[in-house]
Amino acid sequence: MEHVWLTVLGISGLLLLAVLVWPLASRLSFPYTVLLAVVGCGLGFLKHALPESVSMGAASDLLEALHTLDITSEAVLFVFLPALVFESALAIDVRRLLEDIAPILMLAVVGLLISTAVVGFSLHAVSGVGILVCLLLGAIVSATDPVAVVAIFKDLGAPKRLAILVEGESLFNDATAIVVFTILSAMVLGQSDAGLVSGVGAFLKVFFGGIAVGYLLARIATWLLDQLGDATLPRITLTLSLAYLSFLLAEHYLHVSGVMAVVTAALVLGSRGRSLFTRDAWHELEGVWEQVGFVANSVIFVLVGVAVPAILADFSSREWLWLGVLLVAAFAARFALIFGLVPLLSRLGWAQSVQVGYRAVMFWGGLRGAVSLALALAVMENDAFAPEIRTFVGTLVTAFVLFTLAVNATTVKWVMRAFGLDQLSAADQVLRQRAVQQARERVGRELETAARAAKLPTELAAEVAGPYQQEIGSGGNGDLNSETWMNLGLKALLHREQQIYQGFFDHRLIHSDISRRLLDQVNDIQDGTKGGGVEGYRRAWEQSLELGWQIRLAARAQQRLGVTSMLANRLGQRFTLLQATCMALEELAHGRVAAEVADPSVAPQLEAALKERLDASNQALECLRAAYPDYAAQLERTLLEQMALRVEAGEYRDMLAGSVINKDVYSELLQEVETREEEIRRPTLDLGLEAHRLVARMPFFADLDEATQQEVVKLLKPRLALPGEQVITQGEKGDCMYFISSGAACVLLDPEPVILGRGDFFGEMALLESVPRKVSVISEGFCDLLILATGDFNTLLDAHPALRTTIERVARERSG
Ligand code: CMP
Questions:
Q1: Positions in the chain whose pLDDT score sits under 50
Q2: How far, in Å, is the centroid of ligand 1 from the Cα of 728?
Q3: pLDDT value, residue 53
Q4: 814 in ligand 1 pocket by Cβ < 6 Å?
């Protein structure tokens, strides 16, 4: 640690350089990272060119510092790569990634292997260098780096799907390339057998092992995040630690893919962990990661540039030829993959089709960057490789990366322009037009009032507002048909709905697991709408209201094993979900959001679609409320208590902002609010499924004396029937009868079904007459039943002739 100050000087100087390059890059509209590498290159040459004796004080110290900043492959792999990979994966929309996972994985895994082989064999044929070394080089140059392209996408407003395809591919193929690299270098060094089968086996182990490590650590991290509560700083720090620990645990300790571990960890955090953060906290987290990614990228590209002159010093005409072959082989392989493999996938129905413009950009935008360079450096630094291998890999890879940065990165925007991918889609254009129109109308309405309030001349305000007014007339609604408008409206509504749930979570009205479920629910509905418009929307929300498999499973467990807690939990959760859904939909309906987000031509239709969903959700909630009114009241009470506390805390915040109270008073008041908040207990749902409680509610057994009642309680088994559940199926053999303790059941008689309510019984006929069930019976809503098995039925009726008489009389009436 002799030269710590020199390292600090180097890094801070480098960051300053990055900061200065940034505005230059945007003024020249040149990719930032490429410009950084160019500047780095310049510094490298300067260092070479300047004789040792020339001293320029701090400036030459700085140059010296930059030069001594040793960019080792380990530094890139262990310091920069986890940060870069984590940041890109965190920003990816996992659902959209999954939609295109087939082409992405195909390109990242199969594509990388094919490209490795094409490059390897071509170079081997021309250079005569060993095939394993050439394959190694092939793997290194096949790892694409999205950084520069994605930045261009952002600038030009490229379609989201294109960005996901490019970014997804590069995330996964970095991992594949590193795995293939590790396997091949072991083979080159004679540390493992050069066999295809052992190679494939090792590949699968390392690839999926990495996924498992990432998943596991991310789940532990999400659990910890939940435990940490609102403490944003430690929570963000935890994500930093997650990125590095998953990489190290996988790569260093378990010898599986570190990049796959980091990718998986970030994807899990991005999808599951997101609901653990309030919106502000998540933005903060994203900001921190963006910053880390920016710094890592800046440092890496300058340092790469600085190292370039030394590496390229070995370049001779022979290398130029090899570079030519490498370029042709690598681009030909990529072309074949993107224009051959990707369309094949969609033809086979394994993936959605990818339009030709996207493919052109994916082809030309497949830049190489940090990962390729790090792997090349790893070869160059490893003394176990023969010196000529080290130079061969080092020079060719560096030259290749520079080529893609200098040529592809700077020209990919032309490819995008050529295919019109830098323009808004027709729908977005109309939306843009509408937004402009709305904003202008508002200017027209409000400018005069604002001017008057600020005591500015109103004539002047009228003059400024004039041009806005004129343009209003010229903005039309475009030529979108009503179906597209409707889809846009639904999309906007669903987006608002998500925001409302986020708001509920931010205000602690719902817990993180409920908010995650609600957001997932909206995502599912969004998916349905994307594929099927209004119909798809309806189908998707209908499905979201159905009783899920977990509830059914829990009901089974209650029925078979008598375990009620699982069912109570699930139903309690359904209660909360429905309550939040109804509140959000109500807010959307009453806020007349449909009219705001949609074109007037479809607003009424959109409102009707929303209303239909609201009614159905209310009905589902009502159904639960009817069965468990006490619980419903308790839930509503806690909700109101939470709301009250939020209002109170908001008021204190306003007072702090308005300097009515100081920070100390505010903290104390807030603390007090939080203490009270902790005291609010979430109610637990009591299903009341105990035989004695249910029997007590039955008028049928009311006349029996105490002892007989207790005897009856022992014989009856409680069971909750779910809404619509078929309790009795016509034609089946009967082995029990049922008493309804609460709720109702519907006997499906032809032509008119008969509804039986509390205190009624059914299923007695099959037992009395020893015949199959005469008719099916289904449960209306939630229905508490008491089951009496055949054996007990006979015992009970023999012991109590009065009961027998009643049951037989009812059965006679029913058959007559
Ligand atoms: P079981 O035949 O065992 O199964 C179907 C049950 O539906 C039957 O017993 C009766 O309990 C009930 N059921 C049949 N007919 C009527 C009816 N007319 N009114 C009410 N319930 C009936």
A1: 1, 474-476
A2: 10
A3: 54
A4: yes
